[in-house]
Input
Amino acid sequence: MNVEIITPDKALFKGEASSVTVPGVDGSMGFLENHAPLITVLKAGDVRVKTAKGEELFPVNGGVVEVMNNTVLVLAE
Output
């Protein structure tokens, strides 16, 4: 699936991933390919992106995540 993590200053990540885990306000949430459409608010924590090269962590201070059509878009603070 396609993943983008964007802050007001720059894009932190853009590429393909097998899974994404985000710090949702109601707890950690994970997304795999063909996940149902979703928009939710994030709290401070780490966004984990698993790619063919391994796992990458991106610390965020909150934000919003949108999942739709095998695309995960994280608008982070």
